[in-house]
Amino acid sequence: MKISVILGHPKVGSFNHAIANTAVETIKAKGHEALFHDLYAEGFDPLLTAPELDKDPELPPEIEKHCQEIEGADGVIIVHPNWWSQPPAILRGWTDRCLRNGRAYQFVPDGKGGATPEGLLKARFGIAFYTSNTPHEIEEEVYGDPLQTLWLKVVFGLCGIKDVTRRNFTSIIVSSHEQRVKWLDEVRETVSAYLD
Ligand SMILES: Cc1cc2nc3c(=O)[nH]c(=O)nc-3n(C[C@H](O)[C@H](O)[C@H](O)COP(=O)(O)O)c2cc1C
Asked: How far apart are alpha carbons 107 and 14 in whole angstroms?
């Protein structure tokens, strides 16, 4: 299987990098192909341009490559820190530019004047791993769990990825080395479960 791993964190050596590296190692150890993108390291430009809003435009080569990879992926793994209950802008820009209308999803007329969204990605699973400081209960009860909605319902849901998991590692700021080792074990187990 081909599994896309998309990381949005600026600092090499961060716990987010450890999560992404653990996911990639697990994919390879299971004999699958990891399509890994460290968006900051590759200098990904998150700004969607006017021509990209046209139907079937000629995309910049790096964006076309991202689009083709995600369309061919059997699984998608997203890794990022929680920034203002959102992914970092670089990763939001990746969704804007690489999950395109007509390729990752489409809207089909419903015959009643409206449109029904239809997912077009063939990936059979999606995982969102992210790190936070806010306790999970507060994220859910006070903020309404925006990242759960964004990844599981909006992004994976709209693109047709049905088997989805998210894991919010929190509170990262007070986590011990031992806790982080256990969290990485959990990453390994979560990814492995989809590859067996
Ligand atoms: C711009 C910015 C915004 C942040 N917003 C939040 C937030 O809304 N909720 C939260 O729990 N943590 C927030 N944080 C803390 C990060 O989630 C935390 O630093 C990160 O998960 C640590 O991951 P790392 O150890 O891999 O660097 C924010 C951090 C930054 C820099």
From this structure: 38
Is pLDDT of 21 > 90? yes
**Bridge-partner residues for 5, per DSSP?**
36, 77
pTM of the model: 0.97
Under 8 Å between Cβ of 76 and 123: yes
φ, ψ of residue 176 to 5 degrees: the values are -85, 170
Instruction: Kindly give the distance from the C-alpha atom of residue 135 to the centroid of ligand 1, in angstroms, as a whole number.
Output: 12
State if residue 168 touches ligand 1 by the CB under 6 angstroms criterion. no
Q: Which of 12, 172, 179 to mutate to test the pocket of ligand 1 (most atoms within 8 A of CB)?
A: 172
With the most atoms of ligand 1 within 8 angstroms of its CB, the residue from 132, 150, 184 to mutate is 132
Nearest CA-CA partner of 78 in 39, 52, 121: 39
User: Homologous superfamily of 2-195 in CATH?
Assistant: Flavodoxin domain (3.40.50.360)
pLDDT at 174: 97
Q: How far is residue 31 from each of residues 1, 24, 192, 196, measured CA to CA in Å?
A: 8, 11, 11, 10
Taking each helix axis from N to C terminus, what angle separates 61-72 and 89-98, rounded to the nearest 10 degrees? 80
Do residues 88 and 81 touch, judged by C-beta distance below 8 A?
Answer: yes
